[in-house]
């Protein structure tokens, strides 16, 4: 139903619903405040409260806009998302390419729009609800995106890269200690996947960061694709993880209310350190 409504109405409804839901005490609201307190200790309580409220509006709005993103046609998505790219996207098949994204609230819109124009594969984490997972998988792949489950990602992704199709993935969430290292995120040790570095090395691929940001005044989104990281990967996966995390920090400082603070980024802690949630 939401896919057939004008985008401005859907977006404004999402903002209003987010404002309403923020007023209700919840575990996710506590997670947001914990993350902001850890990452921005010098920020006043008033500033963190303002940031948390703005972020909640963005998050709920992004969920509401899934109607447009999952069920809207290609033309509506192309009108919704403008693209700013530092590389020639028509040539990604000539060199193995990994697009590394980050969990800003607009990531879904950017990835969906990209798939309407260019062949691509995408790593995803299956959802616990089988019916919702099947719908998400079907709608995310309806423009031809090859969806790769994270549990079977390495071999499949390598085959895709070698066949000349770029792979999109995001490695900025806490998926557990396996194949991860602890690196500082805003000065706090965060369990961080090393998959980008390992896959790039195995596939001899360049790594190209991208961020999708929400534009002001309900003008949609901007998918910003950066230059490939130079001299990447290195011989040290931990160094590579720190480098990607430092890049992410720069982008978070630019649009802090749009990063996914509702995620338990510090769920796993270094040995001997107490839980924070």
Short description, anyone?
By secondary structure, the protein is an alpha/beta fold. The chain has helices spanning 7-22, 27-39, 45-64, 66-71, 74-80, 107-117, 130-140, 153-162, 195-203, 237-254, and strands spanning 81-85, 97-101, 121-124, 146-149, 167-170, 180-185, 188-193, 206-214, 221-225.
Provide keyphrases for this structure.
globular; cell membrane; single chain; acyltransferase; EC 2.3.1.241; 17% strand; seven-stranded mixed β-sheet; membrane; cell inner membrane; alpha/beta
- Find the count of extended strands (DSSP E, 2+ residues): 9
Count up the helices.
10
Terminal CA distance reads 36 Å
Largest sheet: 7 strands, mixed
- Structural classification: alpha/beta
- Give the domain tally: 1
Fraction of residues in H or I helices: 40-55%
Percentage of residues in strands:
15-25%
From the spread of the alpha carbons, the general shape counts as: globular
| Helix-strand sequence | HHHHHEEHEHEHEEEHEEH
Compute the average pLDDT. 95
Oligomer status: single chain
Indicate the low-confidence ranges by residue numbers.
Answer: none
EC number: 2.3.1.241
Subcellular location: Cell inner membrane
Pfam family, one: Lip_A_acyltrans
Keywords: Acyltransferase, Cell inner membrane, Cell membrane, Membrane, Transferase
